[in-house]
Amino acid sequence: MSAAPEHAPTMARLNWRDRIAPHMPVLLVPLLAVAGFLAIMNPASWLTLTVSGLAMGMMIFIMASGLTLVFGLMDVINFGHGAFVSVGAFAGISVLMTLGHMTAAPSLLINLGAVLLAVIAAMLATGAMGWAFEKVIVAPVYGHHLKQILVTMGGLIVVEQLIIVAWGPEEIYFNRPEALKGAITFAGAAIEKYRLVAVAVGLVVFAAMRWVLRRTKIGLIVRAGVENGEMVEALGYRLKLVFVGVFIAGSALAGLGGVMWALYQEVITAHMGNHAMILIFIVVIIGGLGSVEGCFIGALLVGLMQNYIAFLEPKAALISNIALMVTILMWRPMGMIPVVKAK
Amino acid sequence: MIRSVLSGDLPRSVPLTLILGGILICLALAPFLFPGVRTVDTAARICIFIVLVASYDLLLGYGGIVSFAHTMFFGIGAYGVALTSTHMGRGFDAIAIGSLAGATLAAALALLIGLFSLRVRAIFFAMITLAVASAVAVLVSQLSGLTGGEDGLTFKTPRALGPAFKFGQEMFDGRLFGVKLNGKLLAYYFVFIGASVLFLVMLRVVNSPFGRVLQAIRENDFRAESIGYRVVYYRVAATCLSAAIAALAGSLYAVWLRYVGPDTVLSMELMIDILLMVVIGGMGTLYGAMIGATLFVLAQNYLQNLMGAASGLVADLPILPELLSADRWLLWLGVLFILSVYFFPTGVVGRLRGTR
């Protein structure tokens, strides 16, 4: 009888490389900020650019989060998501323009009240539109990616044209509410007030989404649905209803993002959603389709990258985002935080 | 004879054969049947769009891959010819080098994008092409030193393809069936023959074993992989081929127009037009591209006037004139597009062949 083979497990700690790997996506944001600082070498402009990059990232995140959740939950890719951004912007800004007496008042509270009303109007409009879009456009083509892409693209064209019918083909210029105009100076850097508001709103939305997804029952069902929809249905939950809810919520968020994006640009056109879609897609892809956290990190990266490069080399700004996407896909082909599907 | 020219892929339906034959005869004899600057221009456009749409169908209908960068490849071919013709002077050598360089660049770019996105999920491809195409469009309008920016490039094609060139003076007195024999006529036939050759090449490709594997992948990629075909390779190869042919179509377009600009060859609107043509004509058959492109270009040129007239008729009613005005025709195309994806996924050709 031979002796048992010697069993001598080594109990070494993971080396630092392996320990840091899971957190790498989160660390990328500060790393990019540091790299930006080294490239710019001017604290004041760096701070300005970083804040505006974060603001832009937050707005893209708000617009993109709905898209990524809808995909994760039901495998539906909505190329018409940009339509919600446009409709949200037009509905919100129309309301804001009728509230001229509130936006012209020099008080911050009254101004924010006007913006809040505009946002509520926009979210109601896009939420209702999302419900209709889901029923009419998306529902008949479940489980068929090719048709989904084609049909939602058709939906985008129709909605864009309807916006032109309703609001006219010209670009609409407007002014931000009085208290959100101008900039404050901090440590020698001029920071636009509106960008601070955008960062705050983005953080609140992200925190709220995380809370809903991690701490509530509906969030549990949504997360379980992303991982294994059939099992959730087998347990007696009507995932279809949950999905419609998520679609409406995602559309409403796109509407919110649309209003914020419009206030940032101070001009709205029917095609703005379609243009925003390019950044939204990049963000959703590098984040990992279906992952809210990945989408958040991706949005911040894209926002920072865009602003740093636009400062250093204006013509390379859009290309830089493509380069960012390519680099990240080379590193992690499924995106930074890939969604694990039990299938 | 005809069977082997068409690579054994006959229309398989009497009405379809009649329609395709009609289109072919009209296009082949366009300058003689419909003399007129605008009609010949329309015919040349139809020829070029047939090739462009067929090359897109190779990807969408046969490969099951959605791309939004097809106008980018089209534009690369067009700019290739424009740049070489500008810098090398007018001549057929400039056209040949420009179109070959354009096709090579387009294929290389398609290879890169394909390798990045198709190895993960086919759905990435749609999004990444959308992003890359818009970035390229922005880049082209920004690099105004090279590409002429928003204004585009106007250039000269060989003298033999220009209206000033006349031939057959002594034999036919410079006219054949009342049509002036000049370079514009030659340019039309240059486009027509180029388009026919490209179309037949594509017909050959989709009816080859390669085309069959692509169709198998479209129907069930998992099963195709299990049988032993490397799905990624086939998809990437289809993308490259389709990009190269789109670039060649772009070169033909540049030769015909003697002008390239971001709006005419790179715009998103053009991409949407291509999608509509493929879906209306019928996905998964190159004859669909022929019918789709013909219907669409004719509609684009003549239906808009009709809509303007309709809008004039209902001028007193609310909203309707707004919805019917000629500028809103994209709205109705969008509606038509959605309806045809739902109800006629096989398009006109599928209907005529009696398959659903």
What topology emerges from the helices and strands here?
The complex is a heterodimer of chains A (343) and B (356).
Chain A: H1 16-20, H2 24-40, H3 43-74, H4 81-98, H5 100-104, H6 108-138, H7 145-167, E1 172-173, E2 183-186, E3 189-192, H8 193-215, H9 217-227, H10 229-234, H11 239-265, E4 267-268, H12 272-287, H13 292-312, H14 317-331
Antiparallel strand pairs in A: 1-4, 2-3
Helix pairs in contact in A: 2-3, 2-13, 3-8, 3-9, 3-11, 3-12, 3-13, 4-6, 4-7, 4-11, 4-12, 6-11, 8-9, 9-11, 12-13, 12-14, 13-14
Chain B: H1 2-5, H2 14-28, H3 30-33, H4 37-62, H5 70-88, H6 92-117, H7 122-142, H8 144-147, E1 153-154, H9 169-172, E2 175-176, E3 179-180, H10 183-206, H11 209-219, H12 221-227, H13 231-257, E4 259-260, H14 262-265, H15 268-281, H16 286-313, H17 320-324, H18 329-343, H19 347-353
Antiparallel strand pairs in B: 1-4, 2-3
- Tally of domains of chain B: 1
Counting DSSP H or I runs of 4 or more residues, the number of helices of chain A is 14
The strand count of chain B comes to: 4
Across the major sheet of chain B, the strand order is 1-4
Q: Main β-sheet of chain B, in a few words?
A: 2 strands, antiparallel
**Helicity range of the residues of chain A?**
over 70%
- List the chains of the largest interface with their residue counts: A-B, 41 and 42 residues
H/I helix tally of chain B? 19
Query: What's the mean pLDDT score of chain B?
Result: 84
